[in-house]
Predict the structure of HTH tetR-type domain-containing protein.
Amino acid sequence: MARRSEHTRPELHDLTLKTAGRIVAREGIAALTARRLATAIGYTVGSLYLIFRNLDDLILQLNAQTLDELHAQARAVAEKNPEPRGRLLALAGAYVRFADEHRNLWRLVFEHRQPARLPAWYPERVARIFALVEGALTELTPSRRPAEIRQAARALWGGVHGICVLAMTGRFDDSSEPAVNGMASLLVSNFLDGTVATTRRPAARRRTR
């Protein structure tokens, strides 16, 4: 077994998270235990708790890395789609693809029980992802208040996420990525049609008076 001095504290931190991510990705959420992880990196379980408060803390940091990767991919897609409607459709497709390609890590973000009080850096990561959706919705419906945009973004992405959950748990007859992406695109298109229509209707009424 390796001695603790073989890695600095930051190196051991990064090694542990990288190994934990590999275990979850290959073998599923249930395979990630402190003992299994310690054995995989060649350290004692006690060494892990010099770096992380407990296994929940480790998983929270692993989930933060997953959110960082999701945000990076979503931002890259957003930058390639300047038109807001097309951007939202592309973001939905990117989300479906990420959930499919990183299924176990994606599930871990939502299935692991979070602590009652999250560190500030965790909700900030979630907010960055929603900001991409909110930005596009603001461009489409500039007259809506920020609180309405925020609510609309969460309603829309809650629907896209729900489709992914049902697909990843085998609740659809066809859970292939093209089929799931088609459902997500249909949801986004219909949501945007309704949102834009209800935003324009009051303005049209004012013009007829």
